[in-house]
Amino acid sequence: MLLHGAQNLLGWFWGLGFEQAMAVLTTQLGLPKIVGVLIIMTQFFGGIALVLGAYVRIASVAVIGVMLASFGVLNYSNGFLTTWSGKQLSPGVEFQLLAITVAVTITIWGAGRWSIDRALESPRSRISRERAAREAEMTIQPPSHL
After folding, report:
1. What is the pLDDT of residue 84?
2. What does the pLDDT read at residue 29?
3. Nearest residue to 4 via CA among 71, 80, 95
4. Residue 53 DSSP code
5. What is d(CA 28, CA 33) in angstroms, rounded to the nearest whole number?
6. For residue 7, what are the contacts with CB-CB under 8 A and spacing of at least 6?
7. How far is CA 4 from CA 39, 113, 133, in A?
8. DSSP-based three-state secondary structure for 92
9. pLDDT > 90? residue 44
10. Where would I find the H helices in the chain?
């Protein structure tokens, strides 16, 4: 997401840049300007948030929204897979499904151990999470007399 956002917002990595990306989203795809801005900002800033592990649940829900919206502009007759043979005019849907799956997982499980979200977590919620993990371990282990 971050790389696509950098292409669309800043023109990096041989991207279009903000003006041309907005032109594609609004004129070619017929989206309202606010939706185009939200897509580009979600790609860039949501990607940064996911890389840093900050506000990952919010960012992943936004990514799910962008990926679901992208289904509306894809040509489903091209099938599931994306091929790089140059014969397709539009890619398959495999990337969108992968991104949605990863984003749903992040939404459910949250950020990792070394994330900014965990560093900013309150001690109270950290203690309750650790307590829940200990209780889960106790229920899984067999009795000692066996």
Report:
1. 62
2. 83
3. 95
4. T
5. 12
6. 13, 14, 15, 16, 21
7. 10, 26, 37
8. coil
9. yes
10. 2-10, 18-23, 33-41, 47-52, 56-70, 94-109, 116-119, 123-140
Distance of CA 89 to the CA centre of its chain: 24
Q: What is the mean pLDDT of residues 109-121?
A: 82
Looking at the chain, how many residues does it have?
146
What distance in Å separates the CA atoms of residue 70 and residue 43, rounded to the nearest whole number? 12
Cβ atoms of 45 and 104 within 8 Å: the answer is no
38: burial class by Cβ within 10 Å (0-12, 13-18, 19+)?
middle
The residue type found at 38 is: L
Block residue for tokens 């649940």: 57
Identify which of 144, 43, 146, 145 has the alpha carbon closest to the alpha carbon of residue 103.
43
Contacts of 96 (CB under 8 A, 6+ apart): 67, 68, 70, 71, 74
- Nearest Cα neighbor of 5 from 39, 50, 28, 33 is 39
Residue range 84-105: mean pLDDT, rounded: 77
